[in-house]
Write a structure and sequence with these properties.
This protein has helices spanning about 10-30, 35-65, 70-90, 95-105. The chain is mainly alpha-helical and about 110 residues long. The mean pLDDT is about 80.
Length: about 110
């Protein structure tokens, strides 16, 4: 897939959160492994990080809904259905009933 000339702001947010988490984890391993205050601070940072990640995911879901674009799970379900159809059509002794069941969507 071609990359856009404009960076995705939510992807930048996710990348920043991931880098921040990695930095905090590395710092904790090196310097603050036995400190209870550090443990409390890391817990707060982890909660904030999880909250930011959930906010980014909800924002992305909202944008996809507004643009009427499929989500990642919907695209994966569609790819699985296409794969089932391709598998069915690739067989030499494929019955119509088997192909019909491969085409069936279960929501």
């Amino acid at each position: 897939m071609a990359r856009s000339l404009f960076p995705d702001p939510l992807e930048l947010l996710r990348e920043g959160v991931n880098r921040f988490e990695a930095g905090v984890n590395a710092l904790a391993q090196r310097k603050l492994a036995n400190s209870t205050e550090a443990a409390r601070t890391l817990h707060k940072v982890a909660r904030a990080s999880v909250g930011a990640r959930q906010l980014a995911d909800r924002s992305l879901a909202g944008v996809l809904a507004l643009l009427e674009l499929p989500s990642r799970s919907e695209v994966a379900a569609l790819a699985a259905a296409v794969q089932r159809v391709e598998d069915c059509c690739g067989r030499t002794a494929c019955s119509k009933a088997r192909c019909a069941s491969a085409l069936a969507w279960s929501n």
